[in-house]
Design goal:
The complex is a heterodimer of chains A (about 400) and B (about 260).
Chain A: H1 19-32, H2 39-55, H3 62-87, H4 95-112, H5 117-142, H6 146-165, E1 170-172, H7 178-184, H8 190-217, H9 225-247, H10 254-272, H11 274-284, H12 286-291, H13 296-322, E2 324-326, H14 334-344, H15 356-375, H16 380-407
Antiparallel strand pairs in A: 1-2
Helix pairs in contact in A: 2-15, 3-10, 3-13, 3-14, 3-15, 4-5, 4-6, 4-13, 5-13, 7-13, 8-9, 10-11, 10-15, 11-13, 14-15, 14-16, 15-16
Chain B: H1 2-8, E1 9-20, E2 23-34, E3 38-42, H2 49-56, E4 64-69, E5 72-74, H3 79-85, E6 87-90, H4 102-106, H5 119-132, H6 149-161, E7 167-171, H7 179-194, E8 198-202, H8 206-212, E9 215-220, E10 223-229, H9 235-243, H10 249-262
Parallel strand pairs in B: 3-8, 3-9, 6-7, 7-8
Antiparallel strand pairs in B: 1-2, 1-4, 4-5, 9-10
Classes of the chains: A mainly alpha (about 400), B alpha/beta (about 260).
The structure holds adenosine-5'-triphosphate (ATP) and magnesium ion.
Adenosine-5'-triphosphate (ATP) binds near residues 23 and 50 of chain B.
Chain lengths: ~400, ~260
Amino acid sequence: MNSTVTTDRQDERLQSREGLRGAVADVVERARGGDLGVIPVVAGLVVIWTVLQILNPIFLSSTNLVNLTMESAAVGIIALGIVCVLLVGQIDLSVGSVSGLSGAVLAVLFVSEGLPVWLAILAAVIMGAVIGWVYAQLFNRFGVPSFVITLAGLLAFLGLQLYVLGTKGSINLPFDSGLVNFAQLDFVPPWLSYTFAVIAAAGLFASGYFHARERRRAGLSARTLSMLVVRSVALLVVLTFVVWYLGQTRGVGWMFVFFVALVLVMHYLLSRTKWGRAVYAVGGNVEAARRAGINVKAVYTSVFVLCSTFAVVGGILAAARLAAANQSSGGGDVNLNAIAAAVIGGTSLFGGRGTAFGALLGIIVIQSISSGLTLLNLDSSIRFVVTGVVLLLAVVVDSIARKSRTSHGRA
Amino acid sequence: MSSTQQADSVLSLRGISKTFGAVAALTGIDLDVAAGQVVAVVGDNGAGKSTLVKILSGVHPPDSGTITFESKVVDVPTPAAAHKLGIATVFQDLALCENLNVIQNLFLGQEVRPLRLNDVAMETRSWELLRQLSAKIPSVRVPVASLSGGQRQTVAIARSLLGDPKVIILDEPTAALGVAQTAEVLNLVERLRENGLGVIMISHNMADVKAVADTVAVLRLGRNNGVFDVGEVSTEDIIAAITGASDNAVSQRRARRKEGLSS
Ligand SMILES: Nc1ncnc2c1ncn2[C@@H]1O[C@H](COP(=O)(O)OP(=O)(O)OP(=O)(O)O)[C@@H](O)[C@H]1O
Ligand SMILES: [Mg+2]
């Protein structure tokens, strides 16, 4: 890299940015231009945690944080679907109702009808896919704005949920079922948690190393070995600390691992596949995507189906965690929390911008607020107000960042 | 001449019409492009040039008329269908996604290794294409939104060269380009011709047209207004066909300037 300049660094206007300092300079530069990435969420999280810890010393205790991770999974998975629809510049306002309906359907099929649990889950998941497919048909064929379609869905599926639950209004799931166990009691044994942490760090290093080698062979600039090592070690330290701290009490729940696995899968699909590129392209400029030969309708369909399906999965886990499906499942703030989590995690409401990891970070923020306020014995009325304000703040940050991007030519 | 063109033409249009509401954008357009031939399409603003381009690239369906591609009558219902046939287009509005970077835009819809994107191969190929056009783009990993107008145009042109097109349509490809880049695009058009591709180039610049085109097709108010062999036609005649009169704004201006110089 010293004597011969790599293909992508030949323009003399490029400032050379290498190693750690270069990486930091890059981040600062991008943030100035309005490409904030995860900076606002992480900063927000630090502030929120500090404040809540001062107000109530239990907040950052291992017990509470374990609870927080377990509470995050269901709505976090729903938020993952919201990220996808927001990426194509659309919205699904019905995820709360759909998740509630899925809990009800699961409970009826599993408990009242006595079907095996896997069959009940499968039926609910198929129902979710069908709901998304119907949304997509209405959107593609008639061009009805997605917020109207899904607003109608919100009401209709809430009604269906009440109908399915019948006069009783609530169905309990048996405590000894695997599903309830999974959501309440199944924790990863410590040795396995540490193994996961090591695998994650090693995986990050290996993929970075092979990628860098391939780039160097092709005559392109690449991350240096020291940079890769620093990155992986940092991840290892963070993950090991998290595992150790949560391990002081119950540890890492399988349900949370499941959520993180889904985030990783979505991250791969969005960033490393042709489909993911199409999703970002449709969100950035639909007409350009269409002219590039992308089947825009199919992209919309895939995204709506994915979102409703995630809503169903989230609903099932929420029911399992509560060990019951009732009339208020999926109601209240579920909808707003899922959307807020996506937006707080850096997904733009204007489309074409955001990541799967945003859902993870966003839901942690939302759950922290919710759990912190509950610890303070504050009423849900105040919780709603605070969550509303935080959502508004996230949207304002998004809009300001967008303006800044436009003026810095990074729209 | 039209009978010989008919024989070896890759792309020929017959009686293409298109209306937008009450506006007849195109009426009964005929056009032939042979392999290894550069056809310039010229006409005033609003003559229907871009509409014709969009019909050929599958953006708009024609109301009537036939498109023959490699001696088969074809339908071009979607942009994907046009790509499949081997018709690549550089649109006047470029049609780039501003949130994606240069590589992502270049390979949009034709990514290498769909299930595990090969970004090294794509980046290498991107640099090759851009070098070939002497593009002055410092980095291909920046979003297209941060590029200048001419840089974006270069990206759009580079994109049309990907894949293996048989016909390339350029809608005002040099409108935003610098001197060197314009020359490169004209060189490129000549190279494409040598490689046996059919090229349709839309331009308002008569010097460029005379420099690279083999034939000039004039559109006026959505109708054919003559097809000329570039070697046998003067710029004045082309302008007369574009404006519909030998006594037009351009000739009057020139006459005035001549008078001014001689007096
Ligand atoms: N999508 C559309 N909807 C309605 N009218 C349109 C549309 N596209 C083009 N037109 C009309 O068709 C006519 C031809 O437009 P076109 O864009 O093809 O002109 P052009 O020859 O490319 O002009 P220019 O030199 O300015 O690019 C114009 O009168 C325009 O108003
Ligand atoms: Mg035009």
